[in-house]
Amino acid sequence: MDLEAFLTRHPTIVARELIGWTVTLDGVGGRIVETEAYHHEDPASHSFSGRTARNAAMFGPVGRAYVYRSYGIHWCLNLVCGEGPGDAVLLRALEPTAGVTLMRERRGLDEARALCSGPGKLCQALAVTRAHDGLAMDHAPFALAPGANAGVAVGPRIGISRGADLPWRFGEAGSRFLSRPFPKAR
DNA sequence: ATGACGATGCACT
DNA sequence: GTGCATCGTCATG
């Protein structure tokens, strides 16, 4: 399956199967260990109320980056996917594997486990900004490569009010690089 | 023109 | 666990 086919599926499927893939920007990045799915019919999605200047990238081709500013401070990076316009996967945490020294400088931290353990942290470590909004994530300066995972945990998404009941957050089971642990299964 | 509110992170208790 | 910084985006007047 090529990348376009991989991405042209429901964002929950893509978000789950993306765990273990590697993403880099200018050679800095790591294994994707945490994602969240956003669907255009989901009230929590930025695309729910239609296309605007901010979310335009979500309505473009799959494989592009959708970058937005959160809380006026942080950047967050999504990979556009889905069977139709308006779907994306939020990249929430990476296991740093490449350019770790540069990440430490950008983050002002030593501990690898805290370098990319959150959507805003990840963007600071990789130096993602609005300038990357709309860029293809399988071409330079981005790169995207498949990879395996050690099992996927599922739970509710973080920091949203609407659609909070949907189990659309995915993470590598047992990873030490998550933004937060997953609620214990029951 | 103005106001409300975040798909957060960090310091502090 | 709680509080707050900080500002772009969108809805409303």
Can you characterise this structure?
By secondary structure, the chain is of the alpha+beta class. The chain is 15% helix and 28% strand. The model has no long low-confidence stretch (mean pLDDT 95). The structure holds a DNA duplex (13 and 13 nucleotides).
Per DSSP, the total helix count is 4
Q: What Rg, in angstroms, do the CA atoms define? A: 15 Å
Extended strand count: 8
Main sheet attributes: strand count, strand direction, barrel closure: 8 strands, antiparallel
- Assign an overall shape: globular
Report how far apart the termini are.
34 Å
The portion of residues forming beta strands comes to 25-35%
The average pLDDT value, as a whole number, equals: 95
Q: Label the structural class.
A: alpha+beta
Spans of at least 5 consecutive residues with low confidence: none
Helix content range: 10-25%
Succession of helices and strands: HHEEEEEHHEEE
Quick summary:
With 186 residues, the chain is of the alpha+beta class.
List the SSEs and their pairings:
Elements: H1 3-7, H2 11-17, E1 22-25, E2 28-38, E3 65-70, E4 74-81, E5 87-98, H3 100-107, H4 119-126, E6 142-145, E7 152-155, E8 169-172
Antiparallel strand pairs: 1-2, 1-6, 2-5, 2-8, 3-4, 4-5, 7-8
Helix pairs in contact: 3-4
This protein binds a DNA duplex (13 and 13 nucleotides) through strand 3, strand 4 and helix 4.
